[in-house]
Write a structure and sequence with these properties.
Number of helices: 7
Structural class: mainly alpha
Radius of gyration: 22 Å
Helix content: over 70%
Distance between the termini: 50 Å
Shape: extended
Strand content: under 5%
Number of strands: 0
Oligomer: single chain
């Protein structure tokens, strides 16, 4: 009756074998399709590098002013603008400016690509019922899968 209250666990040897199998599968995937995946994502990588260089090399007061302006147009609230400015100053004072600029460039690139893909796909889904139904099925499946499953190609970058 003790087995009912204690969840069974895998032994360390079994876990190690599972890890080796997954690692081997990812290595095989990388060897087989790595260059094709890199070639597919090359334009995205170039845009990301461009935005990262722009953000990293821009004068910090200009970056703070631009992000404060974006905050103003997005929220129309001085409280939010002041919060953005104070947080950016804190990021700079703590020595995290370069990392924050990399993160902002990553978010900017992802946002632009999402908009560039999302608007035409949304229009096609609205105009063509078959496309809408197919995309709905794909989106339903993606919503139920853990994020790491369909983000595996990002590892290649």
């Amino acid at each position: 009756m003790d087995w009912l209250f204690k969840f069974p666990q895998l032994d360390s040897e079994t876990l190690l074998n599972i890890k080796r199998t997954i690692d081997g599968s990812l290595k095989a995937l990388t060897r087989s399709y790595g260059q094709a995946i890199e070639a597919f994502f090359y334009p995205l990588q170039q845009i990301l590098i461009f935005f990262e260089q722009v953000m990293a090399n821009a004068p910090w007061p200009l970056v703070i002013a631009a992000l404060a302006a974006i905050a103003w147009f997005a929220a129309r609230s001085w409280k939010i603008v002041v919060t953005v400015v104070v947080m950016l100053l804190a990021i700079g004072l703590f020595g995290l400016w370069a990392d924050a600029m990399k993160t902002i460039s990553l978010v900017l690139t992802a946002t632009l690509f999402s908009i560039a893909l999302g608007i035409p796909l949304g229009i096609m889904m609205n105009r063509f019922n078959r496309v809408g139904k197919a995309m709905q099925a794909v989106l339903d499946v993606m919503q139920t899968m853990p994020p790491f499953v369909y983000l595996i190609p990002v590892v290649m970058l």
